[in-house]
Amino acid sequence: MLYDILGNRACVNILKKLYDLDVEKKYSVKISELGAVPYNSIITLKEHDLVLIDKSDSDEVVSITYKGKQFIEQFDRLHKVLVSKEQPRSLDIVYDLSDAEKKLLIVLFRVERETGMPVSLQLLTRELFPYQDYNKKKQGVAKLLNKLVELNLAEKRKDGREVYSKTSQSGIRILKEQILNTLELKIN
Predict the structure, then answer these.
(1) Which of 7, 120, 126, 134 has minimal CB crowding within 10 Å?
(2) Last residue of a domain, one of 49, 83, 117
């Protein structure tokens, strides 16, 4: 799909023209007013839901879709990266964690800090849901913990039948830089 569009210069040019017209609040244009563009390129864009084609009385009208706008914006960003003479700066990774995942990471760090050792899944679940049945909540907490492990924000190990976890170095950094700053808390 991507090659169909990027490998066809006319497709990119059409999208760019439509995007520029959209910015100018001209939301659609007759195909004949686009200039000498291959009709098959417009059809390719339509097949990938990047443009809409409407038939008016005498001519077809084309407009860019939201997906088309997103596509050309990303294309422009890539173009800037390629033509830039600046050395790329370091990239910051931003984690988009759910509220439940953030809460789990915070509680894991807090309990680990208080006890000075890895936290059992049982203790973690009881800290998160103190007034609810442990057996009903442990599976959900285990799934959230597994996601944090996949993201390298937590570590876990199994000892017999019990699972123990702790905050990874990346998890501590994310807590400091992204999560706790939004809560206006600081950790040492």
Answers:
(1) 7
(2) 83
